[in-house]
C-alpha cells in the first residue's frame, strides 16, 4: 500500500473484516493487521486432524450470516458462499431413544410436542415471524426507541427472564429440552437472567433462517470478505501481533477487533482512568473445551431424527443440562457436561473423504481451565449413540486455556467475549451513547460485543 492508510483495522475476525469491507467500499484506503498466520479469527477452517478432514476451528453454525443486517447487505451468496442446511436444524437426544427435534417450521416442530404444542408456538412463532424487525435492534447499540416497539416488547417481556421461569409450566421433556439446549449457549445457569432471551432468539433464528453451515467450511465466509477488501484496494497483513497503538501507522481511524481487556493493554495510559476502570469491571464468562473428531462414518445416534440434525445439544433433559451449567458456574468440570455438537457432513459432504465425517464438539468449563474434557464429551455422545467411540480415527483438542492462547479475544476461553448479563447486553463494553467510539480520538471498537458472526456495523 502506498502512503498512509485512511483506516487501520487490528484483527481480521468477521467483525474486523466487516468494518474493512464497509470502509473500503466507501473508498477509504484500508489496512488490516492480523496477528495470527491466517485471517478469519473465530471463522476459520483447517485440517485439524487428518488430511482431507476440514474442521471449523471456531464457529460452525451460521444463522447470523444469513440474518444480520451487515450480511444481508454484503450478500455472501452473490460472492459464491453457499449455505447448506440439514433436514433438522437442531436436536436434543433424550434417554430411551427419544429426542427433541427443531425443524424450519414452527408448526411441524410444535406438532411433536403434545401438551406443550401451543406454548411452543406462542413463544417462538412471533419472534420467528418478526426476526427482520427484532434482530437489527438487538445487534445495534440501544440508543433510540425501537422502530418496531410491539415486536420488541413482545420478545423483550419474555427474553428478560431466566429460561427456567419460561418453561416452568411446560410438561414434555422434549419441549423443555429445546429451551435448555438453546438457552445454555449463554454459558450461564439456566436460572439466571436473561437466559430465556438467548434461548428464544436462537430457536427463533432456527425457524426464521435456519442454522446452516457454510459449504466448504466457515472460512469461506471470511475469505469472501477478505477478497472484497483487497478488490477494493485494501491490504491485509498477517502474522503481526500489535502490542501497542503506538506501533500503528498514522491513520484517520483505527478500528480494533479486540476484547475490552486487549483495548486496555493496547492503549496503555492513553485511556482516561474512568473509562479504563469501567473496562476493567467488564466480566468474562465460562470457557469452552473443544474437541474435533475425524470419524470413519456418521454418528450412530439411536434416534433417527438426530442423524439428520446439523447441530445437537447433548446433555439430556432440561434438569440435566441446567445442572451441568450450574456446576460450570460454580467452578467445576461436570462429569456429564452439556455438549454442543455440529455434524457438518449431514448438510455438507465436502468436509471429509467419501463416507467419512468430521464432528465438531465443545463443552463449557470454568474460565481459564486447562482440563481436557475429551472423555466426558465422548461419554455423553456414546450415551445417545452407542458405538460412536469405535468410529473415531483422530481427535484434536483445545482446552479453554488453549483457546485464549490462539486468540487473545477469548479471555479465559470465553468464546462470547464477555458474560451475557442484562447489564452487559445493554451497555457493552461500557455504558456510552456510542459504544463503538473509545475516548481516544480516532480509535474505535469494531464491535462493542461479540455474540456471533457478526454484529451490526453502521
Ligand atoms: C469454539 C468456538 C465456537 C464458536 N461457534 C460459533 C458458532 O457456531 N456460530 C457463531 O455465530 N459464532 C460462534 N463462535 C463465536 C464467533 O467465532 C465470534 O463471535 C466471532 O468470531 C467474533 O468475531 P470478531 O471479529 O469480533 O472477533 P474474532 O473472530 O475473535 O477476531 C479477532 C481477530 O483479531 C486478532 N487479534 C486480536 N488481538 C490482536 C492483536 N493485538 N494484534 C493483531 N491481531 C489481533 C485475532 O487473532 C483474531 O483473528 C464460536 C467461537 C469459538 C471460539
The shape is: globular
User: How large is the share of residues in beta strands?
Assistant: 15-25%
Number of strands: 16
Ligand names: flavin-adenine dinucleotide
Q: Low-confidence spans: pLDDT under 50, at least 5 residues? A: 452-458
Q: Helix amount, in percent? A: 25-40%
* CA-based gyration radius: 21 Å
Structural class: alpha/beta
Distance between the termini: 26 Å
Supply the number of helical segments. Answer: 17
Average pLDDT for all residues: 95
What strand line-up does the widest sheet have?
Answer: 7-6-12-13-14-11-15
Major beta-sheet overview:
7 strands, mixed
Structure write-up:
With 458 residues, this protein is α/β, with parallel strands linked by helices. The protein is built from 17 helices and 16 strands. It has helices at residues 14-25, 63-67, 69-74, 106-111, 117-129, 131-139, 149-159, 163-166, 173-183, 195-208, 219-231, 260-267, 273-281, 318-329, 374-384, 400-406, 422-426; strands at residues 7-10, 30-33, 45-46, 55-56, 83-84, 88-93, 99-102, 213-214, 235-237, 253-256, 287-295, 309-314, 339-342, 357-365, 392-398, 443-445. The protein has a seven-stranded mixed beta sheet, sandwiched between helices. α7 (149-159) crosses α10 (195-208). It is globular, with a radius of gyration of 21 Å. The two termini are 26 Å apart. 55% of the residues are buried. Flavin-adenine dinucleotide is lined by residues 10-16, 33-36, 41-43, 58-62, 64, 241-242, 257-258, 262, 288, 290, 362, 403, 407-410, 415, 447, 450, 452-453. Flavin-adenine dinucleotide binds at residues 10-16, 33-36, 41-43, 58-62, 64, 241-242, 257-258, 262, 288, 290, 362, 403, 407-410, 415, 447, 450, 452-453.
Amino acid at each position: 500500500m502506498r502512503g498512509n492508510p485512511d483506516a487501520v483495522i487490528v484483527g481480521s475476525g468477521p467483525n474486523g473484516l466487516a468494518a474493512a469491507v464497509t470502509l473500503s467500499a466507501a473508498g477509504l484506503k484500508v489496512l488490516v493487521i492480523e496477528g495470527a498466520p491466517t485471517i478469519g479469527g473465530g471463522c476459520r477452517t483447517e485440517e485439524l486432524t487428518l488430511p482431507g478432514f476440514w474442521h471449523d476451528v471456531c464457529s460452525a453454525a451460521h444463522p447470523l450470516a444469513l440474518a444480520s443486517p451487515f450480511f444481508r447487505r454484503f450478500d455472501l451468496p452473490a460472492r459464491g458462499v453457499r449455505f447448506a442446511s440439514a433436514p433438522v436444524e437442531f436436536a436434543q437426544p433424550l434417554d430411551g431413544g427419544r429426542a427433541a427435534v427443531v425443524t424450519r417450521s414452527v408448526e411441524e416442530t410444535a406438532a411433536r410436542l403434545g401438551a406443550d404444542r401451543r406454548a411452543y408456538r406462542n413463544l417462538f412463532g412471533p419472534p420467528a415471524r418478526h426476526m427482520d424487525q427484532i434482530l437489527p435492534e438487538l445487534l445495534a447499540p440501544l440508543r433510540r426507541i425501537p422502530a418496531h416497539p410491539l415486536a420488541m416488547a413482545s420478545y423483550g417481556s419474555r427474553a428478560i427472564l431466566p429460561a427456567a421461569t419460561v418453561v416452568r409450566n411446560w410438561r414434555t421433556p422434549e419441549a423443555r429440552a429445546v429451551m435448555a439446549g438453546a438457552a445454555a449457549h449463554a454459558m450461564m445457569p439456566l436460572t439466571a437472567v436473561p437466559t430465556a432471551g438467548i434461548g428464544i432468539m436462537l430457536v427463533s433464528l432456527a425457524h426464521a433462517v435456519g442454522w446452516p453451515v457454510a459449504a466448504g467450511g466457515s472460512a469461506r465466509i471470511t475469505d469472501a470478505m477478505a477478497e472484497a477488501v483487497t478488490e477494493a484496494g485494501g491490504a491485509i497483513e498477517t502474522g503481526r501481533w500489535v502490542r501497542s497503538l503506538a506501533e500503528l501507522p498514522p491513520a484517520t481511524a483505527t478500528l480494533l477487533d479486540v476484547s475490552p481487556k486487549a483495548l486496555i493493554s493496547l492503549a496503555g495510559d492513553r485511556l482516561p482512568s474512568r473509562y479504563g476502570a469501567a473496562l476493567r469491571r467488564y466480566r468474562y464468562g465460562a470457557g469452552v473445551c473443544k474437541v474435533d473428531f475425524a470419524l470413519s462414518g456418521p454418528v450412530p445416534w439411536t434416534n433417527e431424527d438426530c442423524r439428520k440434525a446439523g447441530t445437537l445439544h447433548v446433555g439430556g433433559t432440561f434438569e440435566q443440562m441446567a445442572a451441568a451449567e450450574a456446576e460450570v458456574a460454580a467452578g467445576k468440570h461436570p462429569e456429564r457436561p452439556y455438549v454442543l455438537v455440529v455434524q457438518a457432513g449431514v448438510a455438507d459432504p465436502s468436509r471429509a473423504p467419501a463416507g467419512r465425517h468430521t464432528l465438531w464438539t465443545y463443552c463449557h468449563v470454568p474460565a481459564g481451565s486447562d482440563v481436557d474434557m475429551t472423555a466426558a464429551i465422548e461419554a455423553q455422545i456414546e450415551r445417545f449413540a452407542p458405538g460412536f467411540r469405535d468410529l473415531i480415527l483422530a481427535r484434536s483438542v483445545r482446552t479453554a486455556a488453549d483457546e485464549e492462547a490462539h486468540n487473545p479475544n477469548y479471555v479465559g476461553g470465553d468464546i462470547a467475549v464477555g458474560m451475557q448479563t442484562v447489564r452487559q447486553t445493554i451497555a457493552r463494553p461500557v455504558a456510552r451513547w456510542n459504544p463503538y467510539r473509545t475516548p481516544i480520538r480516532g480509535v474505535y471498537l469494531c464491535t462493542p460485543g461479540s455474540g456471533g458472526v457478526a454484529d451490526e456495523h453502521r
